[in-house]
Amino acid sequence: GAAVAVGLLKRDTPSCAESCFQSAVNDYACDQWLTDTDCCENTSYLFDIGECLDDNCSADAGSDAWKIITNECYSAYVTIQWDY
Fold it and tell me: Superkingdom, according to UniProt (predicted)?
């Protein structure tokens, strides 16, 4: 459930990003949370996260959060081409 998924967030995730990650994972039904291959390959999913980070985080926190996404997707063998 969602409560379990929240526990999977990295401890260094900026608090402003947690709701962005949670919403995107829920909206796109990412079974593997942030390491979901289908989600990592979905440009709309990534765009939604990026937009949410822009709206909710400072530039530094948004950049830190984007690094988490790119690292998580990389662990699912998907390389994110864009910088935050």
Answer: Eukaryota
